[in-house]
Amino acid sequence: MADFTKTQGQLMDWTLLDDTGAVPSLESAALDSGEALDVALEAILHIDMCHADANDASTNYAIAIIWIKAGTTDEDWHEFIRLQATGGIANSQQLAANSGSGQANPDRIEVASTTNFTVPGAKYFLHDVGSLIASAIVVNFDFVTNDYIQCVDALVNAYDSADFVRSIVDQWSIILPSSVQAARVTFHNPDGDATYACRVQYTIITELL
């Protein structure tokens, strides 16, 4: 049976895409020959955008743009795909107690209210306010009303009552054409209040065994 040699990596860890009064645009590192993209049989970009507050993004939609390179200079980037984040207001619930790693039930998010967080299979952003890169996307497996949200998997990191669970998560996995020699992602936020947490990861298949 054939198998693939796969490589996973990260172009940008969780980074704050701020509102227009601060840093309204971000740029990931480029996926290029340093990650063996030039010999890849297939490459996938995994892009995450999560609401990082409870402010109303309304119709001022944030976007992510995938760029691919056609030459050797920075003048040679071309837009490949433009993606639109979900607008509106994220439901936000502050944690009621320590949760995750180190707890008796590390798959639970302890909250005083489960209102708006009761849909099985829903994705949430577990926002570590003190250390954004320790944040995570979690999936609702079950819940106990006004007690906790049970996640599909145990939480890798530890969270406390300064942190939040938020309800709006956008994820895209985009396959790049094999002809692409380099790719990157930029994020842009036209809103004056809403902020986002953004991340870019990749998977590359480099060999068929």
Structure report:
- With 209 residues, the chain is mainly β.
- It folds into 2 domains: 4-87 and 169-208, Jelly Rolls; 92-166.
- The chain has strands spanning 4-17, 25-27, 42-51, 63-69, 77-84, 92-94, 99-100, 108-110, 123-127, 136-144, 148-151, 158-159, 164-166, 169-176, 183-188, 196-208.
- The strands form 4 sheets. It has a 6-stranded antiparallel sheet with strand order 6-13-9-10-11-8, with no helix packed on it. The protein has a 4-stranded antiparallel sheet with strand order 1-16-3-14, with no helix packed on it.
- It starts with a strand and ends with a strand.
Instruction: Find the structural class using helix and strand composition.
Output: mainly beta
Number of strands: 16
Multimer state: single chain
Overall mean pLDDT stands at 94
Q: How many independent structural domains?
A: 2
CATH C-level class of the largest domain is Mainly Beta
Describe the main β-sheet briefly.
6 strands, antiparallel
